## 1
Amino acid sequence: MANDKQNLQDSFLNQLRKSKISVTIFLINGVKLQGVITWFDNFCLLLRRDGQSQLVYKHAISTIMPASSVTMHESEDNE
């Protein structure tokens, strides 16, 4: 049953993706990337800006900062 639940990271990224909220991503080396998350998996995400896509590895990410507020819904069976 635990596999049926989505973890916080996946829920957060999925909400950003579905809402097409612009994000600023800071990498661990200090580089700042901006765009919209269009896809993600366990290891990386696709960031789209000005018609260009960038594949960003999650292990290189320090912080993801949305441009607007993100509404996270808790499931009813959450205890």
Note: The mean pLDDT is 89.
## 2
Amino acid sequence: MAQEVTTPKGIEQGRATHAYKAVNEVEEQYKKKYKTAVKKAPVLVKTNGLGQTLAFIKSKGGKYDDKKKEIIKNGYDIFYEQIGEWLRSDAANQSIPDDGELVKEVIKLDSHDYRQVTIETLALLNWMRRFVDGLMKDVEEDNE
């Protein structure tokens, strides 16, 4: 019988699956900054809170290129998007709307929901960190 997504085991499997796919799909040019972001994030969340950590990750994202007239993404952008994808998924069972900026939606939450989203994010980051360690052994972290 298939595991229900709403059971603790099913939710954990959903996190693991999302984390594995997320880490495995990162393109080579993004890996250095991505690995750094994933490794730093759990400590940042525990020290500064989820809202401030998301704001930090967002601020470290790509910059606007005047010549190309577009934002040039980096590993922080990819990581930020992946966190948002999970928190907005049905499997995560969180109250983050699909429309709107992730960090803005998180900081608007009441304290109970904010704690729940923080716990969920830390659980996801735990899986992502494990997969980064395993799948990106040859990638050095960015020392910026």
Note: The longest strand covers residues 63-65.
## 3
Amino acid sequence: MTGGERASAPGPARSETVLAAAVQLDARIADVDHNLRRCEELADDAGARGARIIALPEFFTTGIAFEPALSHAALPPGGSATALLQRLAVRHHALVGGSFLCRDDDGEVRNAYFLAGPDGALLGRHDKDLPTMWENSFYIGGGDPGLIGLPPDAFGGMSAAPTAGAAVCWELMRTGTARRLRGRVDLMMTGSGWWTVPQWRPRGLFERWEARNEATARRAAADFSRYVGAPLVHAAHCGPVDCRMPWTPLRYRGRLEGATLIADSHGHVLAERTRDEGPGVVTAPITVGRTRPGESLPRRYWLHRRGPLPTAAWHYQRAHGRGYYAAHTRTPAEEDREWPRTAVR
């Protein structure tokens, strides 16, 4: 452990084993109505299997790409996305969570992860801390720790009220995320919209970069549970992506990495669905409750190496995205509205 850091002592004295489910989604970019219907179908499948924890992915209402329609696809915090989470939670008597582009009353858009409880109450919200690459064009970062208190009877047999941790996509790549959640949570609710390295030339080089990128997408999710000492439910996207590349004449053609999985607090993957398996649901029983973290935190900003192309894109698309967001995405507070609901064709 670094800097004299010490992991928190275990929390609830008694843990509880429940069935968890993670959704792998084939979203249509910015087509909110379609994506909400698709999420409901897949979550209902999870609920029918008896899942009491159901994770939807990051950007479950819109998907993600460098697509101008996303500037107008954000929903209000009390709109149809949170209504879906609440409806599913009541229907299946489950915890249901996921993140979406959320336009708040101040006119800013944030990548907000909401968690609904079995009675339909919204238990809490986490705003992703930093947009990744071209995501900077569509939302700003947040500053909360990602801790969401759960009802004492959420899982029936725990001797103290449990706490969920929320984190999405490249938050799982950063040491700071693990530090703020480490030893403080009984369950990690996570998701991603992680895209591939494009197959440009020289083909062999880009194929090697993509092989490492695909492995990192899986490892970032599975390993995070060991860094924080809690089981993890990770939902993700699959399917093709075709869009412009910011500030270049190039076109991005790739796909989403998938890596939908459920891991125990020691990083053992209990169930997973690869990108090639397409949309669907994975389920596994997990023991909700914190354990002593099994992995020390490194003395560096990133938990995993990003690779040359993602590193370059991180910097240049961040610079591009801040101006694009100010010009095209942010709106004055009085213009906040749930519109348009479908993709611009």
Note: DSSP finds five helices and 14 strands in the chain.
